[in-house]
């Protein structure tokens, strides 16, 4: 949800990539439609060549959220839990990212408590560090706990015993073809490890929707790289090359969905528990930007993935080829988007560029209002 500030040394070179880069780049099965978008979207300024997305007409999705809570992750989880008629959220798998794994898994269990899902939403702890690198975090942004701005309690429920990767492998192996949507809103280490260890599970994936990357707006962790991709670029490369449908919700969208005091106020006015919690988290993001840049606005990151699942017609984008820089000294973690087809490589992702921000905030407010 916020701009990440990197440490001074960002030159950690990978040791070996061969064992992880086992899957090949293949065309995505994501489909792009140019009809069915709301009339309000037609007046938006879009990136040249982008098209409004069409509703897919599908019923309730079976969803697993792979996350690293993290302020914006917390709101995304609550957003999904407030949308039960469209999202059947089966589990949270957790990775080290915004803060170390012992905090991200704790935070995931706290968030489910806020929504009264302590017993019904399992949480699985996964990889504590990237595939080939040391973990870098965004604790300077998210706070030492990862959930700066809200009062935290001791989680009321325990972790599930299986490792998150084991859970993903077992679940995908047992699922019907094209039946499971994975939402990746942290570093993609867990998902990449599962797809590498058990590539046959890919057949069960309907779509991977990930928050990560930047192209037209550039990076928030380095000049070239967005945080989630920078933390584990090898994992991102594996996921984008796995031959499954991928939709990327990048920083390009997040900066068109800015959090402002006026947009926080309706959440503060809700009379439930979760509304003021969301308001506190949003306000913490704006406060960080105020301290850092002197502006009272902040990007909206992870919840945009849930909005895409619920109402794809509020977005615009294009199927493109996306590659991840895994060796560059200055460009490590950059998502290289072939917007105009110059490389002739097949499209492997839907890259979103535009969003109707007013529709987004109206939908988020409606769904948070449904929670306890």
UniProtKB/TrEMBL annotation:
Domain Inosine/uridine-preferring nucleoside hydrolase, residue spans: 63-361
Sorted UniProt keywords: Glycosidase, Hydrolase
InterPro entries referenced in this protein's UniProt entry, alphabetically: I/U_nuclsd_hydro_CS, Inosine/uridine_hydrolase_dom, IUNH, Ribo_hydro-like, TAT_signal
MF annotations from Gene Ontology: purine nucleosidase activity; uridine nucleosidase activity
Assigned GO CC terms: cytosol
UniProt record, GO biological process: purine nucleoside catabolic process
Taxonomy, superkingdom: Bacteria
Xref: PANTHER family: INOSINE-URIDINE PREFERRING NUCLEOSIDE HYDROLASE, URIDINE NUCLEOSIDASE
Protein name in UniProt: Nucleoside hydrolase
Organism: Pandoraea captiosa
């Amino acid at each position: 949800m916020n701009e990440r500030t990197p440490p001074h040394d960002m030159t950690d070179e990978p040791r070996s990539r061969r064992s992880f880069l086992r899957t090949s780049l293949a065309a995505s099965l994501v489909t792009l439609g140019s009809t069915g978008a709301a009339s309000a979207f037609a007046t938006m300024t879009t990136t040249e060549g982008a098209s409004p997305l069409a509703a897919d007409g599908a019923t309730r999705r079976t969803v697993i959220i792979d996350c690293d809570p993290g302020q914006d992750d917390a709101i995304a989880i609550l957003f999904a839990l407030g949308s039960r008629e469209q999202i059947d959220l089966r589990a949270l798998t957790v990775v080290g990212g915004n803060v170390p794994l012992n905090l991200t898994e704790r935070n995931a269990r706290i968030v489910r408590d806020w929504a009264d899902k302590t017993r019904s939403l399992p949480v699985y702890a996964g990889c504590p560090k990237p595939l080939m690198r040391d973990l870098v975090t965004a604790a300077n942004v998210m706070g030492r706990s990862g959930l700066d701005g809200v009062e935290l309690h001791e989680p009321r429920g325990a972790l599930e015993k299986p490792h998150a990767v084991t859970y993903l492998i077992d679940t995908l192996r047992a699922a019907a073809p094209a039946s499971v949507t994975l939402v990746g809103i942290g570093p993609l280490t867990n998902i990449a490890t599962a797809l590498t260890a058990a590539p046959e599970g890919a057949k069960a994936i309907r779509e991977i929707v990930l928050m990560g990357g930047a192209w037209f707006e550039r990076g928030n962790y380095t000049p070239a790289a967005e945080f989630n991709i920078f933390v584990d670029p090898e994992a991102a490369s594996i996921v984008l090359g796995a031959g499954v449908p991928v939709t990327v919700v990048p920083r390009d969208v997040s900066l068109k969905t800015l959090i402002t005091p006026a947009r926080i106020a309706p959440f503060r006015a809700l009379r439930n528990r979760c509304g003021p919690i969301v308001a506190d988290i949003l306000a913490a993001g704006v406060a960080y930007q105020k301290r850092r840049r002197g502006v009272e606005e902040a990007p909206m990151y992870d919840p945009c993935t849930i909005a895409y699942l619920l109402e794809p017609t509020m977005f615009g984008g294009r199927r493109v080829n996306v590659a991840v820089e895994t060796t560059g000294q200055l460009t490590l973690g950059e998502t290289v988007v072939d917007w105009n087809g110059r490389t002739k490589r097949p499209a492997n992702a839907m890259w979103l560029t535009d969003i109707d921000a007013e529709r987004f905030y109206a939908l988020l407010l409606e769904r948070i209002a449904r929670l306890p």
